[in-house]
Design brief:
single chain, 1% strand, 370 residues, MetI-like fold, two-stranded parallel ribbon, flat
């Protein structure tokens, strides 16, 4: 026993780490690790603090929430924000020129669309129930917006505007563009010359022109090619243009994901005796989509903001409806308030998509060994 005790290795006591843990340690390592970085950090903190204080002073401390018109608002607080303008025009901003007495319909249509999108983000519904959610949500949204049944008066799309237009164009445009992009990406990698040529032509043609040109083409040129007396709804034409444009960009993103899959995955699928459809939709495509989640969400965010370009064909989305509110002479000179208010709404929606993409990427990569 004495020999065993003498042969046991001596314990080595190490000093505690010199760097402080937590936020203080992170700041020392990244913000104050040298004299130059310390000076830059202090200067930037002072400048950001001054800018933030000036903004809060204008937006909160000196702001006006209740006023009858612009001159009264300016008289109460000449240096503060006039949120009374937004309070007075919020219906025009959110619902555009939709009939005033029927504003409850686009409100519940927006809630239905948002609920449908939130449920679609839950991975527990990624089965047959997702199709049911979209069918029911689409039926409720379109019934409320169009009317004409169940005692609801019919409202044509020329009177739509505001938030419902933005949500419908973004949601359904990207929902339709996603399978279109998948098919185009697979077609571009096809070994059949005709299919590959058609997909390459579609992708390169659409990606080679701006979205505005497609919207003008859909609004002005398309009716010229239709038979006499036949018309297509302007909102539907805008939705088709957005879908085609987004589909081409999504196709290139997915094609990059397909190219990143190792050749061994294809060979393993072939060795298992899977046909092309089984190999693509059960082995290759899920891995490719998992790789391209960040660029896909970035594309979704970009096209969500690009819906404001439909103004070129006379459709007023959320941003353009807000611009119309500025025209009122009783509230002239308060454009900053509208733009800040709309920027907050766009930021909330885009930031939510960004955070969800990070969550989805983290959840889908749990099984990947780092």
């Amino acid at each position: 026993m004495a020999d065993i005790a003498q042969s046991a290795p001596a314990r080595v006591y190490r000093p505690p780490p010199s760097e402080a843990p937590g936020a203080i340690g992170w700041m020392r390592r990244n913000l104050f690790n040298s004299v130059a970085n310390s000076i830059i950090t202090v200067v930037l903190v002072v400048l950001i603090g001054m800018a933030l204080w000036n903004f809060l002073d204008w937006a909160l401390f000196k702001s006006v929430v209740s006023a009858k018109n612009g001159p009264e608002c300016a008289r109460i607080s000449p240096d503060g924000a006039c949120w009374a303008f937004v309070v007075d025009k919020y219906r025009l901003i959110f619902f555009g020129t939709y009939p005033f007495a029927e504003h409850w319909r686009p409100l519940f249509a927006c809630l239905s669309c948002v609920a449908m999108l939130i449920l679609s983000c839950d991975r527990r519904f990624w089965n047959w129930r997702l199709a049911v959610i979209w069918i029911v949500g689409t039926a409720v949204t379109l019934t409320l917006m169009f009317g004409g049944i169940l005692g609801l008066s019919y409202v044509e799309t020329s009177k739509w505007g505001g938030l419902p237009v933005t949500l419908i164009l973004a949601s359904y445009g990207l929902a339709l563009a996603f399978p279109l992009g998948i098919l185009a990406a697979l077609g571009r990698r096809s070994k059949l010359p005709l299919i590959k040529g058609l997909c390459v032509g579609y992708i390169e043609l659409i990606r080679g022109v701006p979205l505005i040109s497609l919207l003008i083409m859909a609004s002005v040129m398309l009716p010229l090619f239709l038979p006499s007396g036949m018309t297509i709804d302007k909102f539907l034409r805008a939705l088709v243009a957005v879908t085609l444009f987004a589909g081409a960009y999504i196709a290139e993103i997915i094609r990059g994901g397909l190219q990143s899959i190792p050749k061994g995955q294809y060979e393993a699928a072939d060795a298992m005796g899977l046909n092309y459809a089984q190999k693509t939709f059960f082995i290759i495509l899920p891995q490719a989509l998992q790789v391209v989640i960040p660029p896909l969400v970035n594309t979704f965010i970009g096209f969500f903001k690009d819906t404001s370009l439909v103004l070129i064909i006379g459709i007023f989305d959320l941003l353009n409806a807000g611009e119309q509110a500025i025209v009122d002479r009783n509230w002239s000179g308060f454009a900053n308030e509208i733009h800040v208010f709309l920027a907050i709404i766009y930021f909330i929606m885009c930031y939510s998509m960004s955070r969800y993409s990070k969550y989805l990427e983290r959840e889908m990569n749990k099984s990947v060994r780092r």
